[in-house]
Design a protein that fits this description.
alpha+beta, elongated
Length: about 130
């Protein structure tokens, strides 16, 4: 996967997925070798349940892949590995995908400010 292979909406999803430190750590560990959930959770120092949430999100946008394999004792084990990807973010690459973005919904207008300003009833507007 590369920047040129993504629509604007897909790029937003990928970047939103990467905007989490746990997910970046997951990719960092998996970039060295594929791994299964229990060992990966131990290596990262997080619960398996939390790791599963992050792995599902990474898999949904195509940053990791999973394969189910049988261990020597017959247990099914799901191994995860990083999918090949390269994101080249430049003003030109963003301009190229901007035309493929879905139009903003009316309720999304002005909601990108962290202080809530610009939102009806949000912080920064006195509740007006």
């Amino acid at each position: 996967m590369g920047t040129g292979d993504l629509t604007g909406d897909d790029l937003v999803k990928v970047l939103a997925t990467l905007a989490n430190p746990h997910r970046i750590r997951v990719i960092a560990v998996l970039s060295k070798q594929r791994n299964y959930v229990s060992r990966l959770a131990r290596d990262l120092g997080i619960s398996r349940a939390l790791l599963q949430v992050h792995l599902r999100r990474l898999e949904a946008v195509g940053l990791v892949t999973a394969t189910l394999e049988l261990s020597e004792d017959g247990k099914a084990m799901k191994f995860y590995e990083v999918a090949p990807f390269a994101l080249n973010l430049t003003p030109e690459s963003l301009a190229a995908v901007a035309g493929t973005l879905a139009p903003p919904a009316a309720e999304d207008a002005g909601t990108d400010r962290p202080d809530g300003a610009g939102r009806a009833g949000g912080a920064g507007d006195g509740g007006r």
